[in-house]
């Protein structure tokens, strides 16, 4: 049982993979829908659930910083030992995972029957049924700016600058984010050698989910110094999108992530979507 729960915790907290263009997920049939075990009467199932919750939380805290709560519900002790459980919900606040900061995260299973088989000899786990979770992540302005200090994000800027320097068109010295009036504002300090100027560009944007990804919507350039065709900046802005970067760092090759919607409300960015793992996928423990 321990290895099953540790595996679940590790997969969920680093959830995601390639963004699915569509997310058609169906729950498997539930053979436990009308059953009830004696372990539910004796209280041993309740004790097993508490132990499971502690094990998952312990594993999560090996992979991520923050305050976490875990709530796993099972059908009975025997099923749980086999890797079968009813539901799992994980919530976290002020989390840091792989250099990605978030104000809150929540993962909850989609189905009331989940089955993961462990092979201790081969050191593998097999998802005997399709596995799915809904997720909700909230980012603040500070979260995004802290994430943009990640060395991997700075490497993205370096690659962009290599292109800009080669064409002598631009060089980005720094970038940051503001959230004002429920709009995302990119602040980019850039040098334009051809014009011999160094200016700070502010690009105000909305966000939307498109084909399972977060993309820039309705970008407007705010500057008094010179005008640039925003359409020409769109690809660059999308490339440096810290939200997309945040989800990219949380990916895991065994899972599929599909963003359903992204909303900026009360100057916080809320992202909701689904994470799925296909039936018969085999992972290493």
Short characterization:
The chain has 285 residues and is of the alpha+beta class.
The proportion of residues in beta strands is 35-45%
- Order of the strands making up the biggest sheet: 1-3-4-7-13-12
Principal-axis shape: elongated
Q: Percent range for helical residues?
A: 25-40%
Strand tally is 14
| Whole-number mean pLDDT | 79
Series of H and E elements:
HHHEHEEEEEEHHEEEEHHEEE
Radius of gyration, CA atoms, in whole angstroms: 22 Å
Unreliable segments (pLDDT under 50, ≥5 consecutive)?
15-22
Indicate the structural class.
alpha+beta
Write a structural description.
With 285 residues, the chain is of the alpha+beta class. The protein is 29% helix and 42% strand. It has eight helices and 14 strands. The strands form three sheets. Strands 1-3-4-7-13-12 form a six-stranded antiparallel beta sheet. Strand 10 (197-210) and strand 11 (213-222) form a beta hairpin. Helix 1 (2-13) packs across helix 3 (44-63). It is elongated. The chain starts with a helix and ends with a strand. Residues 15-22 have low confidence and may be disordered.
Can you lay out the helices and strands and say which pair or pack?
Blueprint: H1 2-13, H2 38-42, H3 44-63, E1 64-73, H4 77-81, E2 84-85, E3 87-97, E4 100-109, E5 114-119, E6 124-127, E7 131-139, H5 141-147, H6 151-167, E8 171-180, E9 183-192, E10 197-210, E11 213-222, H7 230-239, H8 242-249, E12 256-265, E13 268-277, E14 282-284
Antiparallel strand pairs: 1-3, 2-5, 3-4, 4-7, 5-6, 6-14, 7-13, 8-9, 9-10, 10-11, 12-13
Helix pairs in contact: 1-3
């Amino acid at each position: 049982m321990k290895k099953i729960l540790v595996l679940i915790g590790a997969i969920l907290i680093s959830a995601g993979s390639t963004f699915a263009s569509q997310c058609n997920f169906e729950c498997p049939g539930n053979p436990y829908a009308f059953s009830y075990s004696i372990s539910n009467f004796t209280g041993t199932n309740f004790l097993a659930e508490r132990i499971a919750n502690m094990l998952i939380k312990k594993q999560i805290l090996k992979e991520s910083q923050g305050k976490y709560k875990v709530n796993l519900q099972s059908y009975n002790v025997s099923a749980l030992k086999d890797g079968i459980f009813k539901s799992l919900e994980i919530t976290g606040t002020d989390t840091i995972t792989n250099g990605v900061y978030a104000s809150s995260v929540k993962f909850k299973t989609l189905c009331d029957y989940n089955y993961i088989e462990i092979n201790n000899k081969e050191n593998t786990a097999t998802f005997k049924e399709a596995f799915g979770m809904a997720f909700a992540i909230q980012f603040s302005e500070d979260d995004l700016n802290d994430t943009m200090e990640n060395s991997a994000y700075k490497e993205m800027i370096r690659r962009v600058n290599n292109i800009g320097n080669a064409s002598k068109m631009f060089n980005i010295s720094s970038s940051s984010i503001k959230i004002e009036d429920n709009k995302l504002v990119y602040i980019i300090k850039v040098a334009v050698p051809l014009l011999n100027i160094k200016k700070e560009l502010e690009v105000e944007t909305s966000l939307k989910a498109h084909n399972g990804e977060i993309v820039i919507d309705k970008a407007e350039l705010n500057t008094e110094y010179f005008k640039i065709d925003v359409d020409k900046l769109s690809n660059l802005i999308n490339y440096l999108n810290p939200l997309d970067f945040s989800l990219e760092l949380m990916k895991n090759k065994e899972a599929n992530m599909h963003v359903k919607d992204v909303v900026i409300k009360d100057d916080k960015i809320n992202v909701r979507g689904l994470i799925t793992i296909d039936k018969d996928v085999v992972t290493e423990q």
